[in-house]
Amino acid sequence: MKIEDPAEPAAGPVQTTAPTTGTAPGAGGVPAEAVAEAGGLVAGRAASLWHDAWYDLRRRALFWAPVAVLLLVGTMAAVPGLFTGRGENEGCDPNVAKLGPSGAHWFGTDLAGCDYYAHVVHGARPTLLIGVVVTLFAFAIAVVLGMLAGYYGGPVDTLIARLTDVFFGLPFVLGATVILVAFPGHGVGAMTLVLVLLGWTTMIRIMRGQVIAVRDADYVQAARLLGASDRRIMTRHVLPNALAPVIVVATLNVGNVIAGEATLDFLGVGLQYPEVSWGLQLNQAQSYVIDHPHLLAFPAVFLSLTVLSFLLLGDAVRDALDPKLR
Fold it and tell me: Measured between alpha carbons, how far is 175 from 173 in angstroms, rounded to an integer?
């Protein structure tokens, strides 16, 4: 890839005064100011952090490997019918309970004689759904409150910081256990609400710190002097330059939430039968590990691969968005 240097002398007459407006030659309509700020053009486009990050990511094997795993798990969660013709708790026969893998039952059968492969496939949906939805809601809370706290400071920052400290002091698994035990009969919605309530504190601190680092930058001061409103400054200037580290943490957080949800299911305070999830399968297998190891092995492998894929994806995104690590 050839990077054009704006400082390189161009052929023809030398222009002594740089134009204040207009477009850079060959830039496809990109403003000259943007080219100067970016440091040049890359493949006919103005260079940017996100474009460079994507260019770096798509050359990494450690990016495509977790993406492939997550695409497989996501397809299992969205369209389980592509992988199995059996529904949840369908076709169970107690006479064939706890059988090992065979041609009729690829992953064996569970305690009720249900096809274990079908349960593993259907178990991907609640596990992945809770992990992604919890992270999206926590990300939205962190962006809004972190932006307000970092940009305005003062009493707003103090109030949000104290509120964050209160929730930050609640242990994730222990706090969720106490809440879920107090409200039995919960399902996926209640699990999601509890995990959102306890899972937004880390991201808001990072967002607040990034906004504080950006709010006094020269381009922000220039926009303020030109009369831009606080809303426009926050959405057009501060947010795009403060968001990258929060996206990295959010990607890592999906894996952490999935692990936390599986832990709660394993402890018996999360989802309850007849729900199907990998954590519930691990809970049911704990008393039969020695005699029937397949009950533990298959959901554990899928759960571990999913969590590891999100962690590897987060590491790859972090390395791509941080120029110092390239």
Answer: 6
